[in-house]
Design goal:
Blueprint (H helix, E strand, L loop, with lengths): L1 E4 L11 E4 L4 E4 L8 H8 L11 E3 L5 H4 L2 H6 L6 E4 H27 L17 H7 L3 E4 L5 E4 L2 E7 L7 E9 L2 E7 L22 E5 L10 H19 L3 E4 L5 H14 L8 E4 L1 H12 L6 H8 L10 E4 L2 H6 L8 E4 L9 H8 L6 E4 L8 H6 L4 E4 L2 E4 L3 E4 L9 H9 L7 E5 L3 H15 L3 E2 L6 E3 L1
Parallel strand pairs: 3-4, 4-5, 5-6, 10-11, 11-20, 12-15, 12-16, 13-14, 13-15, 16-19, 20-21
Antiparallel strand pairs: 1-2, 1-22, 2-3, 7-8, 8-9, 9-10, 17-18
Length: 466
Amino acid sequence: MKITFFGAAREVTGSCFLVESEQVRFLVDCGLHQGGAWAAERNFQPLAFDPRSIDFVLLTHAHLDHSGLLPKLSLAGYAGPVFTTDATADLLEIMLPDSGHLQEVEAQRALRHPGANDRTPGAGTPLYTAADAVASLAQVHRVKYDRPIDPHPQVRCTFRDAGHILGSAIIEVWLREGGESRKLVFSGDLGQPGRQLLHDPTLIPEADVLLVESTYGNRAHRSLAATLDEFVYAVNHTLHEKGGNVIVPAFAVGRTQEILHYFNLLTRQGRFHDLLIYVDSPMATAATQITMRHLEILDAQTQRLATSRDAHFAEAKIRFVETVQESMALNNVHSGAIIVSASGMCDGGRVKHHLRHNIGSAQNTILITGFQAQGTLGRRLVDGAKSVHLFGEEVTVRAEIFTLGGFSAHADQPALLRWLRSFKRSPGQTFIVHGEQDIALAFAEEVKTQLGWNVSVPNFGDSVQF
């Protein structure tokens, strides 16, 4: 058996792992690389394996850094099934076509402004189109949590709740080879335990080979209570004292629904008053509707809140913005508005327009609520950039930047270590993935020191033979 790391190796994005034996070849995830010129370059490079030789794909969840290259895989000749959970399949129906549409928009922009987008190799040609993405959805096969499937005569898999976003999964894989069976576990992205909306990540008792994420493997998040206190302060201070707007760059899937949940909950608790919230992301609107269709996989408290008579965010006056014209009209709102918009890392979508019209004023606040990958506009803001490049202009940053790490959908170092300690015996080999290099190395050292496990941090393209 051999595993090759084609993404999420000393980086956070581009999750893609190829597993091979004498009888079977399959992928776990096939995600976009995100975060700068190097990411666009890597996305446009030919796949490093023959897609036609792949028997099946297992997908941990819908975020594009795990799913976003599936249409490219299909275009390159892959014709097999993609197995994933029901909720993930529903989310892919909105996320992949939207990704294809954005690819087309960027390509057209590059044609209109030659040389303006140096990040995209082969500028003017989309990586794939919305139609390509829709066509790839025909290959998606739905599975249920905790029900084993046999995607190949030599393979059995079970998807377990990862508690990261709606439908996210830890995947257990039993691979038979030469009369023996090895168990591989792919953590996917693990959620922070104790959060509302989702269940805690499922505890796994054992593995021969483990791949575990390390996005926040070098730090502890602030407590939820402290995070909500800061959230309340940032919003109320901006609206009622500074008289400005609050711009919330948020991932359309997962983070937007969580933010709306807390606006609603805190309004009911009397900590917010007279809020006017605009959700400016058609995908976020669709993802919120999908979330309401899958209440059975949310935690019990969230189910009670969502099904109570006054549950539908009435107190907070939430408006879902659909058309481009409605979105553009928000540029004329100079105070009193909360605008929740994608993308979560500020590198595309409608939020860039809202930043352009709000980031230059000290009365406004930019509220960062999620992970910002290296090379993204959001990361530059978090790191204290004094000016940023938006639509061909250099714009001075005068707005207040708040970073709320406690809302993270990723487990922090203490939570990751607690999850690892749930194993009844140490895996034969553990690979630290899905973390920036310094963080992945630091987490690997913690696992070695605290647990005494056999741990390594693969590089992009590394193959490990078992």
